[in-house]
Each structure stands twice: as structure tokens, then as C-alpha cells.
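name: query_chain
kind: protein
chains: 1
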Amino acid sequence: MNKINLLFILLFFFGIGFTQAQKDSSKTDNDWKWHWKWNEWNDWEDWTIDFGFKDKKPAISLLYGLAKLDRNDFQNQFVDPNLIEIKLGYIKDKAAWNTDYIIEQNYRYLYLSNESNKLSGKNPQGTEIESDMWRFGFGKSEGYGYKITESTAIIFFNSNTLNWSRFDFTFPFPITDYTTHQFLPNNDYDKLNLYEDSFRFGTSSEGGVRIKLIDNLMLDAGYERSIVFQRHLFWKWAGSAVIEAAAQGLLDGFINEIFHSTPAAGPIVNFVLKNALAYGIYELRQDKMNWPFNSEAPIAYDQFKFGMTFVF
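structure:
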């Protein structure tokens, strides 16, 4: 990992805390951003840094799901994999928008997942290609929901991750048959070979629902779109990410106005608009991984996930 990538990852983490403060007028200066507390001007011993983790709780998520693997410029088909995933992080619930029935939830986590047709028990048909992919990364989940009782709620969220994936493809015919393009025309074998035996950078976005049953247990269900780059062209990727962030920022301003005028509608509108924008952007990236900049098509996953989150 080069220095530029490391710098961006650090900014990604720090940026979460700064942007949160702009989303809710009910937040104070001591919440969701760095704050310094001084007893006296020269007392350097009594200070704290929040980073958005004040009142956080440790959380573990265990998920299982169904997936579809594809690449737009690839002619052969893949065996559809299933997935298992674990997340370790910190979760925070907070009353929002000066109401006693709307809550804001933020979840920041590291995660590890495996997606393989071995988990689905499916065998290849004809020239279908088997895959086994391990992925790790970090992400943030943000959303609003409705408080039902003191210990129950329903939350509608949007998640985004940065991740790295390693593939292992299994072909139903000898490799020599593929390299002659008898079964994989248009250099499809060469495209897959770019992913073998190395970790590849990728991103994902997910929309879903969490049902809080008790203080320590939530049920999760979500739909995720993720892409894996065959090459990481940093500046093109950064440009695409800035465009996405700008679009999300404009959308935040509109959603905030809805929260101000009709708080009860805010969680649903936030969920629909944020995830619709993310879906549209990832749809555009199916042909150009760094849309709108000229780039190759990525390997893409569509995933339905469900599971449980334990809060401690």
C-alpha cells in the first residue's frame, strides 16, 4: 500500500467524524467531532478527542447471503456464490432532530467475508466458472430510524466500504483449451488471470434495514453492490469518489430540509434517496469502474445479506 492510499484511508476515517456534525442541527460542539476540554489555559493534562466515538458500544455482526457474480464485458457465466461475513466495530444510537421517536445510528467496522459457490453447494453447468473470493476492509453504516419502545427500534441504513479481494477461479476445462479461446473468447481468460494470486482493491455500497429487538440484539437485512478493480488507477478512482461524495453532500442538504419540515418522513426519504443514488452510481460503474473516466469494467457482485448484530 503506497503513501497516497494510506493518506486517503486516514482521511476517510477522520472525515466521518467531521461530516456527521453537519447532518443534524441538534448535535452540540461536544458531539461527533473533535473537541478539546481545558480546565485551565495551560493545563495540557485534561483534554479529550472524540473522533465520533463518544458513547459508542462494541458490536459484532454475523451475516449470510446470496450473491451473483458478473463482469459486463465477460461472455462466459460464473456459478452463483453464497457468502459469509463477520464485522467487528463500534455502534452508536442517538436521539435526532429534537424528537423522542427518531434515532440516528452510526456503525463503523472492520470486516472479513468469503464468497464461494462451495457455500451454495452449486456445481458448474457447461462452461460456467467456479470462484472463491476472500475479502477484507473497513466501512461505515449510517441511517435513521423510528424508536418503538425504550429498547426496540427499526433503522434504515446506507453503508459504504473500501476493501481488498483475492480470487481463486476454477475452470471446467484444461487451461490450454481456454487460451486457444475455444471456450473463453475475446481474451476472457486473460481478464480473469489479472485477478489471480493478488489482492485487488474494491468498493461497495449497501442499503438495508436493522430491527432492534432488545438493547443487545438486532436483525439485519440488506442489498449490497460491490465492484473489484482489475487495476487501481488512484487518480481516476479518487476523481470518481469525489463526484460521488459531492452528489451525496448535495443530497444531504435536501434531506436535512425534509427533517426540519417533516421529521417523521426523514428516515424513509433518507433511505430511499441515498440508496437510489448509490445504486445509480454503481450501475454506471458496471462498464467503467472509475466512471465517468475511461477505465475497464470491474468484476461486480450483487448480494442479498441477512444476519444478526450483537451489541455489548
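note: The first strand starts at residue 57 and ends at 70.
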